[in-house]
Amino acid sequence: MTLNPTTKQRIAIVLDVSKFVFQWGFIPAVLFLGFRKGADPGMPELSVMNLLWQ
Amino acid sequence: MGNVMASAPLPPPPPYNPPPGPGLMPNLGKQDPSSADAYAPAETTTRIENPGTIEDLHKKCKDIFPINFEGAKLVVNKGLSNHFHISHTINMSSVIQSGYRFGATYVGTKQISPTEAYPVLLGDIDPSGNLNANILHQLGSRLKGKLAAQVQRNKFTAIQMTADYRGDAYTCSLTLGNPDILNCSGVLVLHYLQSLTPSLALGGELAYQRGPGLPGGQIALLSAAGRYTHGDSTFSGSISPSACHLCFHQRASQQLQVGVELEINARMQESTATIAYQVDLPKADLVFKGSVDTTWTVGAVLEKRLQPLPFSFALSGVINHSKQQFRLGCGLIIG
Fold first, then answer.
1. Structure confidence by residue, pLDDT tens digits, B65-77
2. Which residues does residue B138 pair with via DSSP β-bridges, in sequence order?
3. Which fold would CATH assign to domain B54-334?
4. What stretches pass through the bilayer (chain A) (predicted)?
């Protein structure tokens, strides 16, 4: 497969950006999903401080 | 799975079931091996069941091998809800990187079975951005997708994408490893495992690798795999023209499991045999794993739950007599 050097460069930039976003965004995304789900019924609400202690 | 899973305390075997602690790690879609083989013989009927994946072919044997660590380790697991767990790990070691790691696990609400729910997202990261990430999702009733990525020094060192299709008596999986669109390189692995009789499963693996560093630019490897289960014994093996890997697992009693592994690599002119055993003492909340191999390496891991406190204590030791090496590790797992 031969790609035009400019296209290649653009793909490389897109890949680099998406890898960077994945690297630093994955754990925040997991935390976001966890907090969006919230606490179990009958339990006190979750807060960011719950990450450190209960 | 990184530190999060490696440090998670082993679930105790089935007859003894303590109330789950607040920070107990979820099963994450994996079947508990001890409960699976304790009850498997009773369920052996003429019905042919799904054989599982080739990736898990040697799992039963591999699970009783000790996973040794070095240095001191402190793990705090916290379950914030049934769907959300976090962990803090502090590692002090002279072999692997020391420092702090933060882990998070989210288990979705799509319940497949009492122990399995999807999607599962788990990952851990250290302050310099070294990340291990895993995403598992069940797409439909038979197809399962997995994505695993590892970032080290801001480089993606490993990416693996797997799709498993579970038929009634077979499993077919396709794995794509380290794909690079620009250089047209990567590894493609096709697995197929079929249950022929309730005790026998046979399959094969086709691996194709393409990359600039390879002679001729590409390489393909075909290997065969099989597993035979008889009562409490399991034989599993995979053979390719240049390598052979054989495993034998035997449940000797409710407490004791023994495993033997033989690995032969013809290309490297190397072969290693290992014998390992696992002792579960549910009454003492103790799991002990030990192994000896033909390179004179002796390894052992002891894990003890300090009931009624929500603590587990882990002790690991490896000694190699011929190289005169000794590594000791000790860990405390809270939650």
1. 999 999 999 999 9
2. B144
3. Porin (2.40.160)
4. 12-35
